[in-house]
Amino acid sequence: MLCTNKITEIFCSIDDFCKDFIPVFQQRLIGSSKKRHKSSRLSLSEVMTIQVLFHLSGCRTFKKFYLGYVHLHLKSYFPDTVSYNRMVELCSESMLPLLAYLKTKGLGNCSGISFIDSTPLRVCHNRRIHNHKVFKGLADRGQCSIGWFFGFKLHIVTNDSGEIIDLLITPGNKDDRTPLRMKNFTDKLWGKIYGDKGYLGKELFEQLFSQGIHLVTKLKKNMKSKLLTPMYDVIMLRKRAIVESIIDQLKNIFQIEHSRHRSPKNFFTNIFSALIAYNFTEKKPSLNISLIKTNQLNLNL
To answer: Which of 282, 287, 283, 272 is nearest to 105 (CA)?
Structure first.
């Protein structure tokens, strides 16, 4: 199910990160947090590796993967496995290390051509919103292209190679343009960024343009085009499907969205480990920029 080389690659990368991260992290803990820390037979790097491997395994539930695959087939890699209940506790404790690894080693770099989109992360069915308690005060009602939902929004921006440059998780009622208004979200971006009609806005365009970012979107039917859109931008807007393909993989292969969460920590660790797992996939949706430029030149001629 999982390649031996891939398991070794993931563990070595995470273990090297943990060797530098854990001493700094423990120094910044308050006194009460240090007292609550319990030693475990499984190291933090092993716990994080198992969580990432789950999203690459194809199993639909973590319990089935841990008890039915890790215990039986990966015993040589993880000889000191713990019970499933203890493993769930260790997974919740790995939320911050997973986030730190994702932000420092699990993201790509901007190439000057970026694509942005958002997707809803439902945490329960609409009929059970009033009885839902796990994300009370955190999640909210929002609207997307297929209707109303209750949960969060995952905003991602990717490059032309299919790598995720940055991400942001917001309540479901937040505007799609919220991340682009945040300076820390756009620090990595430069060049052109392509989005759908939900990112239209004169003030946002001017703000990003002053930062060296050119926001390109389609116009709504009731809007008159004041500027002639270059053919290259028209072609790249059609290629915006690359970010939609990435979101489709994150949902259907890496399972970033499901309604089985029993705590907010479980929700965030599931998303962080899934995004890290996506980073380790060899075949990502990507664009052949040189071919696109050649086709544009032929059209101009």
So the answer is: 272
CATH tag for 113-261 (out of 3.30.2130, 3.30.930, 3.30.420, 1.10.101): 3.30.420
Q: What is the pLDDT of residues 104-132, one digit of tens each?
A: 999 999 999 999 999 999 998 888 888 88
| Cβ partners under 8 Å of residue 245, min gap 6 | 285
- What's this model's pTM, rounded to 2 decimal places? 0.89
Tell me the CA distances in angstroms from 78 to 43, 81, 82, 117, one per residue in order.
10, 6, 10, 38
**Of 169, 144, 143, 165, whose CA–CA distance to 154 is shortest?**
169
Angle at 113 between CA 112 and CA 115, to 5 degrees: 135
Report the alpha-carbon distance of residue 245 to residue 298 in Å, rounded. 28
Q: Which of 154, 148, 171 is nearest to 243 (CA)?
A: 154
When pLDDT is averaged across residues 5-20 and rounded to a whole number, the result is 94
For residues 162 and 242, the answer to whether their CB atoms sit within 8 Å is yes
Domain map of the chain by residue range?
A: 4-105, 113-261
CA distances from 232 to 22, 282, 290, 292 (A): 47, 28, 12, 8
Per-residue pLDDT tens digits for 189-218: 999 999 998 898 889 999 999 999 999 998
Across the strands, what pairs with 191? Answer: 213
Backbone angles phi, psi at 81, to 5 degrees: -65, 150
